[in-house]
Amino acid sequence: MYFKQILDERCGCASYLIASRQSHEAAIVDPSIEIEQYEPLLRERGFHLRYVIDTHVHADHVSGARKLAAQHGAELCLHESARVAYPFRPLANGEELPLGQLKLKILHTPGHRPELISVLVMNPPRSPEPSMVLTGDSLLVGDVGRPDFGGGDASAQFESISKLLRLPDWVAVFPGHFEGPCGKGMCGRPSTTIGFERLYSPLLHMDRDPFVAELTNGVPARPLNMTAIEATNRGVADMTWAMLTSSPAVDDVGLDAIDSAPPNAVILDVREPEEFAREHVPGAVNVPQADLATRLDEIPRDRPILTICQSGTRSVRSAQFLYQQGYRNVTNVVGGTRAWREAGRRVDSTEAASGPLRITDSEWAHAGARTVNTAETRIPSVG
Ligand SMILES: [Fe+2]
Fold first, then answer.
1. 176: CA distance to ligand 1 center in Å?
2. 341: exposed, middle or buried (C-beta count within 10 Å: 0-12, 13-18, 19+)?
3. pLDDT grade, residue 246 (50/70/90)?
C-alpha cells in the first residue's frame, strides 16, 4: 500500500492519500482547496483516483473535494446524513470501499458534526485487523473535536470516542487537524495511536457528564469566516475567497492606540456576541470573526479599523483577512479586551445577545463611523 499525510500549516488541517500499489487505485481524504498539490503525487506513481472522501462538512476551511472528484471522475463520498446541495455517494456505517487489496471501512463517529465519519484502513493480506484510522475531527491527538459550533453534540462525541477506543492499541490514529480551532487542547503532533491516547489523553479518562461539561464549557469561539466557509462546503454559497490564504504583516498596536485613534476609527470587536455583551471597550462594535466574510459590506473601507478580541489571537487573523480583502488601514490591538480590563480601564456591557448582532447605523455613529451599507448577505439553508 501507499500512504501519505499532507499537512496544511495555514489552517492546521491534514489530508491523506491512500493507494494500492498493486491496482494503482487511490483515495484522497479531506482534500484541501489547493488540489494541485495532489497531482504530482498521483501522476508520478501512476495512481488512478477512485474516491474522494470528506469526513464531514468542514467549518474552518474550504474543501477541495468536489473540484478534485470532478477533475478525476472519482466518486465524491460523504456520510449518508450529510446535508449538502450537490450529489455525492452516501456512505453508511460499516460500509467497506474496496481499493485494490485494501479496504476502507466507514465508521460513523458523530459528535463534532452529525455526519462525521472515521475511515479504518484495512490491508487483509497482511492482517485481518485495521492498521490505521483516519478520525477527521472525532479523536484528535491529546484532544477530541469540539462539538460546540456547527451542529455538534457532546454526548454523541462521547459515544463515538468510546467506539474508537475499542480498537486495538496499535491502531495508528491520523486526525483531520493537528492545530486550529476544532480542538481546544491539541498536542501538535500529527498522529498518535489508540493505545497512547487511551492512556494519556485526559479527556478519555472522564465519565460522560464531566466529558460533556468539559467540551461545552465557555463560549465557543467559532472559526474565522465559519458562516461563509460552511455554506460554501454545503454547496449553498460560493465564497471560496473567505479562506485566509496569506499572512500579511498587519501592524500591532497597544491599548493607547484606542485612546489616540482618530474620531472616525472603528474599534471592531470580533468575539462572539455573548463575550461582547459581557464586556467590551467603550465604543467598540461587534462583528464575530465567524461572520466577517458574510458581513463585510458592513465594515467601512474608508476609515481606520482596529481589530480587538479577548486576548489578541482572533483579532490578528481577522485583521489579516481584512487586509487580504483590500482593507489597508487595519491594525490589531495586542492583548485585547482582557488587557484593557486588567489595565483598569472602563468596560461597557450590554444585555446578553441571543444571536449575531446587526450593527445599526446609530451604533456605527456611536463608534464614530458614518452611515454604512447594511445590506445583508443571506446564506440560503439546505432543506
Ligand atoms: Fe471540523
1. 7
2. middle
3. confident
Specify whether 77 is catalytic. Answer: no
Q: Who surrounds ion ligand 1 at CB < 5 A?
A: 137, 182
Say how many Å lie between the CA of residue 136 and the centre of ligand 1. 7
354 alpha carbon – ligand 1 mean position (Å): 24
Render pLDDT for 23-56 as a digit per residue (tens, 0 to 9).
Answer: 999 999 999 999 999 999 999 999 999 999 999 9
Per residue in 50-73, pLDDT (tens digit) is 999 999 999 999 999 999 999 999
- Whether the pTM exceeds 0.85: the reply is yes
List the domains of the chain with CATH numbers.
2-216 (3.60.15.10), 226-366 (3.40.250.10)
